[in-house]
Protein: Glycosyltransferase
Organism: Cellulomonas wangsupingiae
Amino acid sequence: MSSLPVPPDAAPHRISVVVPVYQGERTLPGLLAEIEAWSAPFETSDGHRAVVSEVLLVHDHGPDGSEDVIRKLAATSHVVRPVWLSRNYGQHAATLAGMASAGGDWIVTMDEDGQHDPASIGDLLDVAMRERASLVYARPTNPPPHGALRNAASRGAKRLTDALTGGRQSRDFQSYRLVLGELGRSVAAYAGSGVYLDVALGWVVGDVATCPVVLRTEDRPSGYRLRTLLSHFWRMVLTSGTRGLRFVSVLGVVFGVLGVLLALFVVVSSLTGGDTPEGWSSTVVAVLLTSGAVLFSLGIVAEYVGVAVNMAMGRPSYLIVSDPADGPLGRGGRGR
């Protein structure tokens, strides 16, 4: 689909860039310098006028000195808007907080570690306009710079999620994305606690497209550990629908059928004079299999109940506060 002609006097597309910050002490200054190059009106390859109108740095209470860097960048840059969270909520919640605070026509989300090239922002916009898409994911043309094992695990997790949810959309999920501003702000306003951001976007967006980009080497080691990655994967499964609960039902049917077949085998074996299983081994195996299936099923159901309880209690996905340095906690004393 070709894009519509661009009027010569059309107002530029205002783009808000959201960067969740956890360990950005070393990488933020360089990343902001690259983004600021697009803070003056520019023209994309397809002739669309655009401008990065603001950069929202969302402080997610990491272990380094990112908060001081954010304050310095806000004091020296006309596009930086700090967003302060009350505590660490995780990357997806921090991204939602930034999207809720954004005011642009479009919202671009990107990581703090330097692997996302801001020069691709114009390409993302061109794809959105060309394909009339309200959400565009960056599609890496080179392997992500995480190592072969993590890349393989990521691909496997996405395929498994698609199998459980009956879709194919998770294969396109990327933290480098462009979304219509009004849709991004709406999702950030209603998304419940623990929701997987890309799943929430999939509930409301229309056409989704991808844009080829080249990922750069990270300027620092990844802050994600195995436990964090597994948590992301599990949250993506839980918030993708109720197919997990259907899997529990299917599992119960499968073990019920196996139980009936085992009973028939014992009866037939007895009638034909065969050796009837009489040892403890078969009994123990059957008990372990069935009890394991029951406990596994109860665990899945409990996870879904936990998600529902958190939402029913009104647990927020994030809480935006003022700069702690400007409040009572920032007042020095003799011991400081």
